[in-house]
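Predict the structure of pectinesterase.
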Amino acid sequence: MPNVTFDGTSKKYGTVDSATIIALSHYFLAAFLNIVNSSPHTDGKMQRTQAVALRVASDGSAIYNCNLYGFQDTLCDDKGNHFYKNCMLEQAQRPVMR
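Done. Here is the predicted structure for pectinesterase.
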């Protein structure tokens, strides 16, 4: 499966805008993707290290067979009605490159 990777953090972009993919279009469709937010994870001293992999803020979106990897707030299911099937969400303990 293809990887889509970004290293945004809430400190740099704000939580909702730190996502690797931000779906704002109605009827957005994603299938068979690894969606990874590979930002550095907190060492206990850093603040605002949330790293969203996918933010969906549209109506009628569908996500099929996708793996989401992030650190805290991995999925931001923001606005609208969304359908998820056979998806896996993982809060990574360290950066994930698959």
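The first strand starts at residue 3 and ends at 6.
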